[in-house]
Amino acid sequence: MTKKRDRFWEYVEDLKGRFKCNICQKEFAGGISRIKSHLSGKKGRDIEICLKVPDNVQVEACQAIGSPYKKAKNIAVSISGIGGGINSTSTTSMNDKDAVNKRFIKFILLNNISEDVIRSQAFIDFVKGVSQFGPNYELPNLVHQAKLVLDYDREILQYVRNAKESWVVTGCTLMVDIENGDEHSYVNVFSYCPKGVVFLKSSVTSRDGMTWIYLKDIVSSTIDEIGVDKVLQLIVDNDEGFELTAYMLLEYSQVYITRCAIHGIQSLLMDLFSKVDWFRRITMARKMILSYIHKRGINLSFQIQKHTKYKKFEHPCLARFASNFLLLHSILEFETELKDLQLLDASLD
């Protein structure tokens, strides 16, 4: 009678005298007893434990080796080389959200992290990734970081190649972004197609140097490099730039030129602000509210976040006037909570 194969083999790949864990992808010498010890999470059994083992598998493995299963109630996090004299090893309950929030605030203040970084999708994805991985996540060392950067660089290059290769089938839209400063003008050119957006080139000149000849050289050279048969549309986000490009596209009659819709909305809102009195007064009141909150310091800001369930105001962007209206909308959304804080604010004096 054939002996029944132990069920814990399903969690590993049998390498004939060795095994590879299907959960953490690490290889070890040995057989079924070492597999169970590896999956049990019990240290001191002459094998590295699996840091990614699901709770249900770990419970079964503990039972198989005759060891009680105890799920840790606290998480010990140690980050060596980070903190600059501050004790960076501590223990925090997994359910203590206030303690985690304090660490978050400490991280922001000690490293002078801007709000834009915290609100970026990349940072949000990183925090979610760490949360999903669990308490055993460790930051990569410098050597591993360098490798990851190179890997990411290759991914970006492949993304760009895929987008450019697709132009043969779908064509592309050129987007010209023009920013006029007090002394200089900046021109950035991007391409868009169903495969994604690609940054193509950037140029800077003096404010007086932004002429139709200068802009023509940039856009014409870009169209020629891509191939005139692959450029379907040109979008310009600047009224002055739109007028300039209208002259030069006579030789590219098949390219459709249009204004940027977002720039049009931006211009409309700026006109409303300058010409409609009540509109301007509401916008200025918004600035007073935000200024008041910032001047009251972190105590009031924390209380506002607490009352709004840690949702944050949309912050205005200096380069985009329309962002003022996003902030107005968020203030209106929290109108009741802000009114409730009036008495609380008085108690802070």
Automatic annotation (TrEMBL):
Protein's name according to its UniProt entry: BED-type domain-containing protein
Entry annotated with the keyword Magnesium: no
Organism, scientific name: Camellia sinensis
Keyword Manganese attached: no
Chain ranges of the BED-type domain: 3-57
PROSITE patterns hit by this protein: ZF_BED
InterPro entries given in the database record: DUF659, RNaseH-like_sf, Znf_BED
Example GO molecular function: zinc ion binding
Signal peptide residues on this chain, from the entry's feature table: none
Family matches, as Pfam families: DUF659, zf-BED
Keywords: Metal-binding, Zinc, Zinc-finger
